[in-house]
Amino acid sequence: MDVLLSAVVSDLFGRSASFVINRYFQRQPGIDMILQRLERVVLRIDTVVEEAEGRHITNQGMLRQLKMLRQGMYRGHYVLDALTFQAPLKTPWLV
């Protein structure tokens, strides 16, 4: 009786663990989706920074915000480049 109970409990535990793991990985976007979204966001930021630099802004608060936006754009480009170059190396274990 103990053997049967142990088998049933271990089977239920294994199935529930498998279910939880599958649900978790289904919600995670793929690296390609992350790269595409990051690329779109960085392109939008790049456009906004370029447009703002074309105007003659004298407000110090706006200039500080533009500086922070420009730094975020540079970080975004850096991360995008780093992920783009590393993605082919990591692909075999992701598949």
Question: Can you offer a commentary on this structure?
Answer:
The chain is mainly α. The chain has a domain at 29-94. The protein is built from 3 helices and no strands. It has helices at residues 2-27, 31-54, 60-94. Helix 2 packs antiparallel against helix 3. It is rod-shaped, with a radius of gyration of 24 Å. The mean pLDDT is 76. Keywords: Leucine-rich repeat, Nucleotide-binding, Plant defense, Repeat. Residues 8-87 form the Disease resistance N-terminal domain. GO terms for molecular function: nucleotide binding.
Largest sheet: none
Element order: H for helix, E for strand? HHH
Terminal Cα span: 42 Å
Name the overall outline: rod-shaped
Mean pLDDT: 76
What fraction of the residues are assigned to beta strands by DSSP? under 5%
Query: Total helix count?
Result: 3
Q: What percentage of residues falls in helices of 4 or more residues?
A: over 70%
- Tally of DSSP β-strands: 0
The parts where pLDDT drops under 50 for at least 5 residues are none
Rg from alpha-carbon coordinates: 24 Å
The helix-and-strand class reads mainly alpha
